[in-house]
Amino acid sequence: MDLEELKRLGKDPRFISGIHNYCDRWCERCSFTEKCMNFELSEKQHSTPESRDIENDAFWESLSDTFKLTLELVREMAEEQGIDLDKLDVDDTMEQEKLRDEQAEKHEYTIAAKKYGKMVDKWFESAKENFEDKEKSLNKKLLLDIPGDTPEEEAKVIEDAVDVIMWYQHQIWVKLMRAVRGQMWEDEEDFDFPKDSDGSAKVVLIGLDRSIGAWGILLNSFSDDENNILNILVHLEKLRKSVEKHFPEARKFYRPGLDGPVEKE
Ligand code: SF4
Predict the structure, then answer these.
(1) 29 is in which domain, residue-wise?
(2) Is 15 part of any domain?
(3) Choosing a second label site near 178 at 20 to 30 A (CA), which of 103, 109, 123, 187?
(4) Do residues 115 and 211 share a domain?
(5) Structural domains counted in the chain
(6) So what's the pLDDT on residue 90?
């Protein structure tokens, strides 16, 4: 892809501007791939099976092409806007950023989100045997072929729930860090709506809602481990309530495309 094609894509009305800013990056499960320029770009850059393979030279070549193309675009934009790329703006911005990072990491919600990530690891580690037993019992059901029993479906439901938990396990912390840090900046700058912190908090809440749903499925399938799963669910629910309280506008935040038809300006 060359610079002209990149610019052409940028003007393509098919794409919803900014749709990727507040999504959960789970492109495989996203129903907006047709409307997402980010997705199109990534498909074009990694369009062959080889280029998807991280251990393949093609992947790194493709990444290097993206780097060159991006650099070209940045240089062109800098020239248009009279920005001197050779001059570094040394001010206290980095110091402030570092301070906000440190404060965000110490925030009780981000600490709770990190703890959740560890709880997930611990549970999956302890549940290995349970998964093996479940597999055996589902295979047995498959052989018995009892009318009304749907072991394949059950296996798929469990697999999907595990996928959901894994997908959001660390993303909740990452997005919450962004929301908390963003809120500090917005407060300092007296920023008005719409707030990026609310958009990020909304992604956190969606991740929490879906994770709670997924743990509910596991609770159903692994009833012997009810106490441990309930502990995780209680932790998640507390976190969800806290985030909702701390970011009261988050649920209402409009994410372009993802939250319904694009609003006309
Ligand atoms: S909007 Fe959908 S396709 Fe685009 S980056 Fe997000 S998850 Fe992927």
Answers:
(1) 3-80
(2) yes
(3) 123
(4) yes
(5) 2
(6) 58
Mutate which of 17, 33, 35 for ligand 1? The one with the most ligand atoms within 8 Å of its CB, which is: 33
* pLDDT surpasses 70 at 265: no
Nearest atom in ligand 1 to the alpha carbon of residue 257 is 1
> Does residue 14 share a domain with residue 140?
no
Q: Ligand 1 site: residues with CB under 6 angstroms? A: 19-20, 23, 25-27, 30, 32-33, 36, 38-39
- Cα-to-centroid distance, 16 and ligand 1 (Å): 11
Q: How many helices (H) and strands (E) does the chain have?
A: 11, 0
The string over 198-237, giving b where at least 16 C-beta atoms fall within 10 Å of a residue's C-beta and e elsewhere, is bbbbbbbbbbbebbbebbebbbebbeeeeebbeebbeebe
Q: Which atom of ligand 1 is nearest to the CA of 32?
A: 2
Q: For the ranges 45-49, 220-224, 234-238, which has the lowest average pLDDT?
A: 45-49
Q: What is the pLDDT of residues 3-47, one digit of tens each?
A: 788 878 888 999 998 899 999 999 999 999 999 999 998 887 766
Q: Tell how far the Cα of 48 is from the centroid of ligand 1, in angstroms.
A: 19
Q: Which residue's structure tokens are 């908390």?
A: 180
Ligand 1 atom closest to 25 (CA): 7
In this predicted model, what pLDDT tens digit does every residue of 87-146 receive, in sequence order?
766 566 777 888 888 999 999 999 999 999 999 999 999 999 999 999 999 999 888 888
